[in-house]
Design a protein that fits this description.
homodimer, 508 residues, mainly alpha, Neurolysin, domain 3, three-stranded mixed sheet, 20 helices, globular, metal-binding (chains A, B), hydrolase (chains A, B), protease (chains A, B)
Chain lengths: 508, 508
């Protein structure tokens, strides 16, 4: 079949094909969701066959020469004349993806997915034994393949850019470094002051007995209250909490319940709800096209962190939810004042594990990983020296040193699975969240008053209009500029964290 | 790519392709399982897109000319010299499927699936209102398309054969009719005697309060005890109970719990467990090939009915399970003797709804449907006259007349969904089950003694060896002949039903 000479014809064919590829991807997501929630253990091998077949079919279709011809036919046409138009956005982002996918030879992709499976297994074993030496050869293999990937994809200044770009379009090692450097000093300073304040949050309150069934009920109520649509989604249980978009009308999230710790599941659900609200707010009629997809991991994370931290750990939020919490957990919350509760859920203290760390120190965990993974990729740091470099930075940024590598450089799954360039998106998300939230307060008015009344619709409506409904129309930086009139910057996040530190620890 | 001239090459390529097509089919089954268990309501439209894409990809690959060439290359070769060999079975059954699939024009397949969706909707609405006139035009449409299907597929004597053959390979309208005619008279006679006996089972026992959680626990215990492997399967809840084979190591069944009726869920689970045990016993190394697939719907049903009725409603079974039942339902079973319980779960009485009917009258419901659907397809009966013909036969076979069409000819979903030729497999399943069970008793020895000790492994082992592990090596009739030395016949089922009638109703 010759490529249509009419660019509109080409565009229509492209849209049809992209939508089918998206449906295939969504089927793979169903398989993955099932695998993590209900699949019986004996099905593991067959599920791998199912998943790899879907991945292969999807990859074959997305990298077909025909698709490249269709993209080219449209991008040389007047259809993309308006750079802010939907078609321009769809072509721009499809081109990005297409180029990246076609630049990677199938042999490299296969080798990476093979090594990643084995490497994750090795990491999991090594972490259990806290035996970094056992994992190190695998990390070397992963880095070797990732460097090849960088060469295939291409980059201007830094190989790291070739990896980062797939998670956060437009960012580079240089731009992230500039942002993070501006954040690091003030953060280290703030954490030091908090530690030095001598005040300690009554964490013990969160460690009382919180029955799982009551936790689940309460978390569902909160998710529903802030706007999660259970008619078009679910909440289940899994070992590793996640949120997945299975298609229009189907957004599912998971959590896990620890009866001896309240914060894990509850703020976890709020976090996943933030992701879910974004997914549920994407334009359904643009499904399968970039115009109907999320902007980046950083912007996605801005939504989850906003609901988890800026909303969920606010005084106003608990003004509304405290009575429900008391009803849900009468024993645990007996005699607990609103002030004590607020302090407990906003505890800040240096700790070893990123995923368990607080709103403030969390970013220092991320900065450290960004610096180290970039150095590893560039061969500025040998994997031999990783544990030492890790511990040294932990000491420098947080004033504590990991007693072993399991609680040090072996704690995260990311590197073993080849996700290098991913970590920065967590802190970018926090930065964007704070900037968006600051703007929302200006645009929407008294957010806190609304939260205290249990009214989250104004904030959600604002996010829907400004962010969710826009799909990938803008790049992350364009989006923050359009919405707030400012570029990405650490100011808003620092102001937010300092405000809380002032309130709770008397420092700033 | 030219077809390999070496038949072994051709066979290897065929096997690879069939296995991938099976994986695609198994993915479609995951989608369907999820749809019926956990999918949020809002996902319905997208799920339809996912399912139809998988169906299309699978159909395109299975009907490709290349596949036909590969089959032909093998079937003209010495590889199939041994008609009892695995390759012969794989080629024989793939040829059957391939011919059927390629004979149906895509336009007809699409029109059928479109009409079936609408027709099922119309049926569902019509049944609610018991308004047959509203459904009749849709039944006409379905019959019209089914007649076209028969013409495309081809048949010798009776168009009905073209439909029946896909569910029960080798059976024809004539052969089924002969079997059913031999069954009908004795069954009608037996039911008449039971009704005339004046004895009535203490059904009320089953209608006490049976808490759903206790039902689920007890049903799980029973499923596990008879051999269901929960490491390679699940039991969930759905509106319509079913069992689905999602691939090696993944067999899932569902049920629903009625707290005011014990028998529905419990015997439903035993029924689905029978299907599941068959699936779990298929040879995993032959997955995706006929040699690793089930023989027919009739043989599948023989497994479910055996565990539900021949095992699950036996005295010996309850000798073992009664203490567990008493522990699970202490209130409902207080003062209930084993005899009363045994009578209650073996109640026989004419009733209106097939799915709620007992082991004996069930077959008369099926016979009636077979006779009517065959007459409808051949235009021997007009859809105008269906309700009258239905009610007349209900009166003749069971001595009762439906008060409305909802409880008459509108009760089953099958015809609205185009499943004409499917009903006979239910009774064929009962016949095969009785024949197999009679033989198992001869081969394995004291089955009842084993059941009473809670030992179901000998029977399951026998089924595994004789039936499950054989895949589609033999046709249904060949299989029963090999196992029992006899052809399909109503003798064993009638003997079983008469034995119970003698024991409980004093008639035979």
């Amino acid at each position: 079949m010759p490529t249509p000479t009419d660019p509109r014809q080409a565009y229509l064919e492209l849209v049809k094909e992209l939508r089918e590829i998206a449906v295939i991807g969504s089927i793979a997501s169903v398989l993955s969701w099932d695998e993590q929630t209900y699949m019986p253990p004996g099905a593991t091998d067959h599920r791998a066959n199912q998943a790899s077949l879907m991945a292969r079919i999807s990859h074959e279709r997305f990298t077909s020469p025909r698709l490249g011809e269709l993209i080219a036919a449209v991008e040389q046409s007047p259809l993309v004349a308006d750079p802010q138009g939907d078609i321009a956005a769809n072509i721009r982002e499809t081109r990005r993806d297409y180029d990246r996918s076609t630049k990677l030879p199938a042999s490299l992709v296969e080798e990476m997915s093979r090594v990643e499976v084995l490497s994750q297994q090795a990491w999991s074993d090594a972490r259990k034994k806290s035996d970094y030496a056992e994992f190190r050869p695998w990390l070397d293999k992963v880095l070797h393949l990732k460097r090849q990937e960088c060469q295939c994809v291409g980059f201007k200044d830094d190989p790291y850019d070739a990896l980062l770009d797939q998670y956060e379009p437009g960012e580079t090692a240089t731009s992230v470094r500039a942002t993070f450097e501006a954040l690091r000093g003030p953060l280290v300073d703030l954490v030091g002051k908090i530690v030095g304040s001598g005040r300690v949050a009554p964490l013990e309150i969160l460690q009382r007995n919180y029955p799982a069934a009551a936790q689940e009920k309460f978390a569902r109520e909160a998710a529903r209250a802030v706007g999660f649509n259970f008619n078009e989604g679910r909440l289940d249980t899994s070992v590793h909490p996640f949120c997945t978009h299975l298609g229009p009308g189907d957004v599912r999230m998971t959590t896990r319940y620890d009866e001896a710790y309240f914060a894990d599941a509850f703020f976890g659900v709020l976090h996943e709800t933030g992701h879910a609200l974004y997914n549920q707010g994407l334009p359904k009629d643009q499904y399968g096209l970039p115009r109907g997809d999320d902007v980046s991991l950083g912007i996605h994370e801005s939504q989850s962190r906003m609901w988890e931290n800026l909303v969920g750990r606010s005084r106003a939020f608990w003004k509304h939810f405290m009575p429900q919490a008391r009803a849900a957990f009468p024993q645990a919350l007996a005699g607990v004042t609103e002030d004590a509760w607020y302090f407990a859920i906003n505890d800040v203290r240096p700790s070893l594990i990123r995923t368990e760390s607080d709103e403030t120190t969390y970013n220092l965990h991320v900065l450290l990983r960004f610096e180290l993974e970039r150095a590893l990729l560039r061969n500025d740091l040998s994997t031999n020296d990783l544990p030492g470099a890790w511990n040294e930075r932990m000491e420098k940024y947080l004033g504590i040193e990991p007693p072993d590598d399991a609680r040090g450089c072996l704690q995260d799954i990311h590197w073993s699975g080849g996700a290098i360039g991913y970590f920065p998106t967590y802190t970018l998300g926090n930065l964007y969240a704070a900037q968006f939230f600051e703007q929302a307060r200006k645009d929407v008015g008294d957010l806190e008053g609304q939260f205290a009344r249990g009214d989250f619709a104004p904030l959600l409506g604002w996010l829907r209009e400004k962010i969710h409904s826009q799909g990938m129309k803008y790049t992350p930086r364009q989006l923050v500029m359009r919405i707030t009139g400012q570029d990405l910057a650490p100011t808003a996040l620092l102001a937010h964290l300092r405000r809380k530190a002032g309130e709770l620890y008397g420092v700033s």
